Amino acid sequence: MGRGGHRRRLGRVRGGNVRPMTDFAASSRPATGARKTAPAALSWPEARRVATGAGRRLAGVRRPLDEALGGVLDGPLEALTDLPAFDTSAMDGWAVAGTGPWRVVGEALAGQRPHPALLDGQAVRIATGAALPPGATAVIRREHGCATDDQLRASVPELPVPGQDIRPRGQECRAGDQLLPPGAAVTPAVLGLAAAAGYDELRVVPRPRVELLVLGDELLGCGLPRDGRVRDALGPLLPPWLRRLGAAVDGVRRLGDDAESLFRAVDGSDADLIVTTGGTASGPVDFVHPVLRRTGARLLVDGVAVRPGHPMLLAQLPDGRPFVGLPGNPLAAVSGVLTLVAPVLRALGGRPEPAAGRAALADGVPAHPTDTRLVPVALDDRARTAEPLRFHGPAMLRGLAAADAMAVIPPGGTAERGTEVEVLVLDWE
Ligand SMILES: Nc1nc2c(c(=O)[nH]1)N[C@H]1C(S)=C(S)[C@@H](COP(=O)(O)OP(=O)(O)OC[C@H]3O[C@@H](n4cnc5c(N)ncnc54)[C@H](O)[C@@H]3O)O[C@H]1N2
Ligand code: MOO
């Protein structure tokens, strides 16, 4: 269940739990799960476009600065004050009025109210960051002046230079200036800037909350594969990656291949996005389609012309929340994250799409005749090349674990060595 503990019930049809097929708009699957005729898979670029449009940006919330990290700005960050807010000294030394020599009449430390105005020929000892007394025309650095018996002389002939080592009020910004645009990621630097500019709280688009449901009777949470069972690889892989992509993920719920428990988990979740793994195909215990049908969801993407990962799907629950079904084969699930989950998370979280990376293939890669291929590659940033890696089968993670990116190989022919292709950088850390 989501963090708030609130359960959102999905709409039900009286007299039965299965919605009419018209509610399962894009699907042509029969209610039992097996497919009579395969619906046309969307092309990979089209599926990504649909995913981008499937998530409505979450409403902004006010957060104290220390809880705003990792969100994005809901609106522009406008300065609440001039910065600096008052004229200050940039150096330790003396603030002076007019040309020397000067009589030292007091002291100005950071954090004190401004010293009374200086007359021509007067000076105060001043600390870096202290408010400049009115009338001061320059600052003489400690190492450029010589003070005896309250008489100050510059030890460098060119001094004083008017304005030297003074940080004038408003040098960095004026109150009301836009410091950052809406959608900027809230980094530690942004927190510092916001505090300097007078903010105690920020209005941010929150991280979308993801409910992650890992399906499969065969999955083990620990130990060696045994008795036909395998270790769950996606439970450890997905949460930290989805967090990196801007999501809030409380944890993973592992469910058996049981339609009722999947329905209850989906029905009881108040997450902004539900992601399942496994059960997308048409095997005897693949329940994602029938359960979606029972919830009254609308399928937006039902299969994508991409290898691996072609059974991935994207649906919209009756209340509009998105649902992504990732295939169970681990590299196919990774392909589904890149194709569907990442764009949906960006849309929900108000994050801009990163600029597309490109690199030249260091070796030829056979393309699929009709589908896009996503192939793990090691990037050489200096040479701007991408080396295709072995062990890239849909059930394998060995290539991925050594990869920096997935190269996008468009359908048809062979992508020859030297061909420049799009690369989706795997920003793990
Ligand atoms: N008759 C057909 N069979 C299959 C097709 C097809 O088109 N026609 N597509 C194949 C492709 S491609 C994929 S991908 C898989 C997708 O299947 P599901 O999404 O239903 O996934 P499962 O059947 O539950 O599992 C598939 C495979 O992956 C292993 N798995 C599942 N979850 C995990 C996990 N968390 N960690 C590690 N491994 C996992 C599972 O044990 C299976 O070996 O369907 C093909 N079949
Ligand atoms: O999606 Mo499957 O082969 O492409 O693992």
UniProtKB/TrEMBL annotation:
Record's keyword annotation contains Repeat: no
EC numbers on record: 2.10.1.1
Catalysed reactions listed for this entry: adenylyl-molybdopterin + molybdate = Mo-molybdopterin + AMP + H(+)
SMART domains per the UniProt record, alphabetical: MoCF_biosynth (SM00852)
Region annotation (Disordered) ranges: 1-41
Pathway: Cofactor biosynthesis; molybdopterin biosynthesis
Domain annotation MoaB/Mog: ranges: 211-347
Record field: compositional bias (Basic residues): 1-12
This protein's UniProt keywords: Magnesium, Metal-binding, Molybdenum, Molybdenum cofactor biosynthesis, Transferase
Pfam families tied to this protein: MoCF_biosynth, MoeA_C, MoeA_N
Cofactor(s) listed: Mg(2+)
Protein task: Catalyzes the insertion of molybdate into adenylated molybdopterin with the concomitant release of AMP.
PANTHER family: GEPHYRIN, MOLYBDOPTERIN BIOSYNTHESIS PROTEIN
Similarity field: Belongs to the MoeA family.
Name of the protein this chain belongs to: Molybdopterin molybdenumtransferase
Origin organism lineage: Bacteria, Bacillati, Actinomycetota, Actinomycetes, Kitasatosporales
